[in-house]
Amino acid sequence: MIKVIPFVYNDIDDLYANTYVIVDDDNNALVIDPSNDNDRLSSYLIRNDLNVKGVLLTHGHFDHIRGVDTLIETFKCPLFIFFLDEEMLTDSYLNGSDMMSENSFIVKSKAETLKEGDKIELLNEDIDIIWTPFHTLGSTCYYLKKSKIIFTGDTLFRNGFGRFDLPHSDRSKVQSSLNKLFKLDDDIKVYPGHGESTYIGKEKERY
Description:
alpha/beta, Metallo-beta-lactamase, Chain A, six-stranded mixed β-sheet, 5 helices, 28% strand
């Protein structure tokens, strides 16, 4: 059974971003979108003796990646991002930190790249990669079919979806990307990059 532990950053400086830790029955853990570079997350992982197997990024915007280097340095684990967003990690214009923050930001850790159809096989349940470009070219959702949960980053929120007017966005892909998600079962729980959780069925009704 997979357990989800949300870390919610309710501060304008963090753009109200969500980070998630997912843990299997063997105490193996993955971190999704480490948005804040502080010791709260690392302390939780160490205190609970979790075996951190990797860091997954739903996309490359700075408000979802600022904690990456600390985690990789502390836990010596791999970092994953869809190949089309890899360049955002080292480009402060593309990742938005030049526009949204006083300090430009880049990730120093080297990422392993993903493509559509890949699976993450680091927990006792495989994670499917669902490519949902529009917010960024490489926006990715992480789907655990057996557990009926999906992590959607800035692709799908409760009562909304991500912007498509930023560098590395493609507004022509909005509906086709949402349709990929709306083909999933209605009772799949959605953990978004910002805001509260929801369900596929509830969001499908809105579009």
